[in-house]
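User: Fold this, then the next.

Assistant: Folding the first:
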Amino acid sequence: MKKRKFAWDLFWMVVLITAAMASAALALNPLIYKAERTRQIRHDVKQFSRSVEEIKEEAEQKEEPMPYEELYRSIQTYNEWLVTISQGNLTNRVSTEIVPITMTDYGLPDEVFGVLRIPAMDLEMPIYLGANYDNLANGAAVLTQTSIPIGGENTNAVIAGHRGWNGYPYFLDIENLQVGDLIFIKNVWEELTYQVKTIRIVYPDDIDAILIQPGKDMVTLMTCHPPNTGGRYRYLVYCERAKNEGADA
């Protein structure tokens, strides 16, 4: 009888220890994910900056007027094409996830398009093209069917980010941004400066809210709102190209 009781007690002890270990693992998982995301995002930002410096040095040595000119022209063509089609496919979520231009096809080392820097949010993240699962996990992502951010009239690059996810903040602190704040986008060719002009909260199906606005050079930051509600609304920060470009915040 004592042996049976001992075995029963031992069984429940093992069950309780296993449950405690599982709970601890679940509690630590967001911390582990945050540490890994932080490491990966910082690495990608630094790697992109190093690549840009190397690209500039190589272009100077070869006396090239513009590095990766074919890629730049392809992006220009894509942005101009968006104006002609009225961005009708923005209603289809899948169409916003497809990668419109593959960076490695043009000789770039990876698929990082650029770096988004927002001083008011203490944020610096890589930018990817196509708002699919992997790109949104690795940084910020430009919605396909919106402009790729190289600047220019009749452009609106809609850059999406999670409102915090698995312990990493992403665009969690987007409400820190106020009208007049600056955001910076560094691509292979230059760093573009945009200024916050308007902030809106809209329904997810309000496609008109993120369309290209004729004559304007824009970037629109987009994320879910409020946090942790499954995306009931969209929080939009409209930014226009700064007149005194280059001024830091």
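Now the next one, as you asked:
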Amino acid sequence: MPRFVYKAVSPDGEVIEGETQASSRQAVIDRLHADGHVPIKAEESRRAAANTTGLPEFFRPRHVRPEDLLLITRELATLLQAGLPLDRGMSVMLELAPAGPVRDLLEEVRERVRGGATLADAMAEHQNVFPNYYVGMVRAGEAGGTLEAVLTRLADTLERAAALRDSVRAALRYPALVVIMAIISLMVLMTVVIPEFRPLFEDAGAAMPVSTQLVIGVSDFLAAYWWLIALAAVAAGLMLRQHNRTAEGRLRWDAWVIRSPVFGDLLTKIEVARFSRTLGTLLSNGVSVLNAMTMTNETLDNRAFAAAAAQAQNRLAKGEGLAEPLAETGVFPGLALQLIRVGEETGRLDSMLLKIADIYDGEVKSAIQKMLSLLVPLVTLGLGILIAGIIGSMISAIMSTYDLPF
């Protein structure tokens, strides 16, 4: 039976930790609940040992990461639901936090709260960690006396976003590796293998086929000017980065991206899911629709999409609905618009937006899986055809040079 290490909060508000045997992680959590404790963490001992292994200072994170924000939110929500006051809950989290940026952040927030500031005001001083929509939801939760429920919903939102982000990254690793290996293989073939055939053809003195001349010409160019190609690629990347640093340049680039035939539809779905989940979560926690739109726009990565949402917000401020202004921007898909319209008509816009987010999250995962299932075979097939063409042209030249029968 596996062993688990756990941390929990006792009914007296004290942090307890230990190690126990259980059939599963859920069994440990159920046992802690039965004893009247509030579980904070329960994981297999070997993973816990790996996670608590001291890292050299150079490898430790120097800022609060998105996964740290998710953990902070979930832990604070759990402690508040257990009945602990905010100050005591923050103190418990400080005891659990490892030394580093997370502990420093929690300590600063706790001291501001102890000094009389609200939790939202204390968090607002760290905009690099707590986004505006996050602070706005916390402020609404404090005003309505539902802070623990708001934090739980925020943790769920952050968890879904992290799951989608991790699934995209994990799915792209293998295709990226295939593309990199394909490029390396072609470079080795063209700059190392092909040049070895040149003396053979020169000694024979026969005219080479056009395809062979082309292959050798490309090989000579790559061998002599590979550094120029690399320099041009770096220069193009720097120029694009500089272009996107300006508001106008970033807007043009993002507008082109969402109109691109391959990735445009996928990126649009990602932005629709993010827009719908953030706006729906804010509205369900009592934030006014105009304030919620302002906060939501700041969470969007694509500037063209954010500009379209801001355009709809201006119409919304004049008393119009949300669905029609969004439809006139031309960037929101039809299904999302129809569901938003239904939500407005039924007075359940917040729940409908969350439903839209779930739908498009699922579509994003499905689209990524389909795209990657085609990408790897296509790259492999394309590489095989290219290498076969190169080798075929060389064999054809050898056979024609020495009058060998085909």
